[in-house]
Amino acid sequence: MSRRTIKVDYLARVEGEGALYIRIQDDQVKDVKLKIFEPPRFFEALLRQRSYQEAPDITARICGICPVAYQMSAVHAMEDAFGVQIPAPIRALRRLLYCGEWIESHALHVFMLHAPDFLGYPDAIQMAKDHAQIVERALRIKKAGNAIVTLVGGREIHPINVRVGGFYKMPSKRELDDLAEQLKPIRDEALETVRWTGSLPIPEFDRDYEFVALQHPHEYPFNEGRLVSNRGLDISVHDYDETFTELHVEHSNALHSVLKARGAYFVGPLARYNLNADQLSPLPRATAVEVGLPHPCRNPFQSIVVRSLEILYACDEALRIIAEYELPDTPAVDIEPHAAVGYACTEAPRGILYHRYELDAQGLIVDAKIVPPTSQNQKTIEDDLYEYVRPNVHLAKDDLTWKCEQAVRNYDPCISCATHFLKLDLQRDIS
Amino acid sequence: MTCRNLRQPRQAEILIVGVGNADRGDDGVGLAVASALSDEQLDGVHIHLVNGDCLPLLAFWQQVELVIIIDAVQSGAKPGTIYRLDASHQPLPQSMIGSSSHSFGLGQTVELGRTLQQLPRHLIIYGVEGYRFEVGGTLSVEVAQALPEVTSRIRFEMKGWRGKCTNTRRQS
Cβ separation of B97 and A38 shorter than 8 Å? Predict the structure, then answer.
């Protein structure tokens, strides 16, 4: 039996880095391991003995791409702990802030990280040489998302305007109206983006997943709702720890999150779309039909289309919020800290992000638990790779490597939330 | 760590960009250098800190004549080694593109800008060799000791550039 070990330095175009090992023996896939080297618990430890007020700013440091998501889960968990109800204008503004982050994050991934795969380019730089207009569109869309986050979140290096109970400062109606004028043409560009991704050549792939997402009776979910799945899950976020568990896999330091009852599950845009498509506004709903996006959608490669659809929805929703916006009497409600436990899930661009905090009588954090969406998708990504490699074992090394990278990128894994380096180690044993 | 509020720099001013993650050991060196220069409140100099996403720089530096970026690098050299790269007219080394731990990294952003003709007229990158990048770590001793030297070289670079600009204006 001969062995060949093929190594690629790093998995390109995943935000941050991670590691992938595949062993093939006699043309059979024997082992697939998604390896992640970095302990994910530094920030949970950092939060202990800090005031509840510091949670949004500390957790925002966890991810440079989705700081808003961490802040939203943090403030909602604290408000849950203290029994705080935020008034409608603050609630709306938080949705607007999240729209901005979805637009930024999804635009980065759709155009700069994922699209090159479908067009046969090694990276976005090479793609830009032939498709400069597409990349320039990406930058315009991303800039609009950034403008929302800067105005509402007050970003310098991390958003600084978010606090438990609301915000430090509310934007004026005039500032929001100016933002709306910037967003209107971007919505048109987002519409064209759905049409464009809908025309890309998509690999055939279909698995029977359990999709998990927030669900709200009146809106496409951001910050609130129950946790539901396509296999009957319907729980309050308070029951998250009884329903899900984290398995520490030997080769990985980013824990694999699984449903206690049924194992691997799938979070993110595909899950949101499959479980909440009827809550999309009319324009993205019609556009999904126009481009032939199936519902439910079980092909993770079509996530590029779903992310584009969510960019369109976020533009639509942002414009709706701005049009209906009323300045609240106060930027934040008062908080009376006390000993309590608070829970929250919010829909980060990559999927549900769970925070749980235990607080003492002074509002100091006794214990914190944070489960990023990427660790919730880990097992599903590994299982996908196992299936995806099987019919492709005969491909040349470079082609197989590229296919695996593309399959991992379907999940837009924010590896920087959980790890640091990704290397592809392909071991091929031949009798 | 303080920096000026983000605002679009006016034409012909200098933009200093610190790139990195202050929670990842030596990856914070770019932020540390930029913050030190920010504390000096240099006239006509804008300071910008970036963590995780370099792409907005393409729009941000459009009207700026001189952009100086500081970031950590990892090449295997002695920790604290300082590199200077003139990225204005020549592509960055391939090893710099995609080697960042940030999202769409600095190297990729610069080369994308070159492809789209969206680079500033003068783009200088200072890299400081690091070796400790674990989450929760602080700057290593070697990198921390390099901070004054990097800062000094950037001040000297700005002075020299401004001198050249003044001479050019006198001659025209």
Answer: no
Query: Which residues does chain B have within 8 Å of residue A12's beta carbon, measured at their own beta carbons?
Result: 98
Q: Is B2 on the interface with A (CB under 8 A)?
A: no
B25: left (phi over 0), alpha (psi -120 to 50) or beta: left
Inter-residue contact B29 to B128 (CB < 8 Å): yes
Q: In what order do the strands lie in the sheet with A340-348?
A: A340-348, A351-359, A365-371
Largest CA distance in chain A: 75
> What secondary structure letter does DSSP report for B41?
T
Contact B97, B73 (CB under 8 A): no
B169: closest CA of chain A, how far (Å): 35
Report the half-sphere exposure of A232 (CA within 13 A, side-chain side): 2
Q: What would the DSSP string read from start to end of B132-155?
A: ---TTB---HHHHHHHHHHHHHHH
Among A43, A108, A132, select the one facing B55 at the smallest CB separation: A108
Task: Supply the ipTM of this predicted assembly.
Answer: 0.88
Cα gap A242→A259, rounded to integer Å: 9
SS (H, E, C) chain A: CEEEEEEECCCCCCCCCCEEEEEEECCEEEEEEEECCCCCCHHHHHHCCCEHHHHHHHHHHHCCCCHHHHHHHHHHHHHHHHCCCCCHHHHHHHHHHHHHHHHHHHHHHHHHHHHHHHHCCCCHHHHHHHCHHHHHHHHHHHHHHHHHHHHHHCCCCCCCCEECCEECCCCCHHHHHHHHHHHHHHHHHHHHHHHHHCCCCCCCCCCCCCEEEEECCCCCCCCCCEEEECCCCEECHHHHHHHEEEECCCCCCCCEEEECCCECCECCHHHHHHHHHHHCCHHHHHHHHHCCCCCCCCCHHHHHHHHHHHHHHHHHHHHHHHHHCCCCCCCECCCCCCCEEEEEEEEECCEEEEEEEEECCCCEEEEEEEECHHHHHHHHHHHHHHHHHHHHCCCCHHHHHHHHHHHHHCCCCCHHHCCCCCCEEEEEEEC
Interchain CB contact of A143 with B (< 8 Å): yes
Q: Would you call B101 and A16 a contact, using CB atoms and an 8 Å cutoff? A: yes
Q: C-alpha A307: how far from its chain's center? A: 10
CA distance B102 to chain A (A): 6
Q: Which residues of A touch B24 (CB under 8 A)?
A: 420
Size of the A and B interface in Cβ pairs below 8 Å? 83
- Tens of pLDDT along chain B (172 residues)? 223 334 555 554 899 999 998 988 999 999 999 999 999 888 889 999 988 678 989 988 888 989 999 999 888 889 999 999 999 988 988 766 653 333 578 888 999 999 999 999 999 999 999 998 888 889 999 999 999 999 999 999 999 998 877 777 677 6
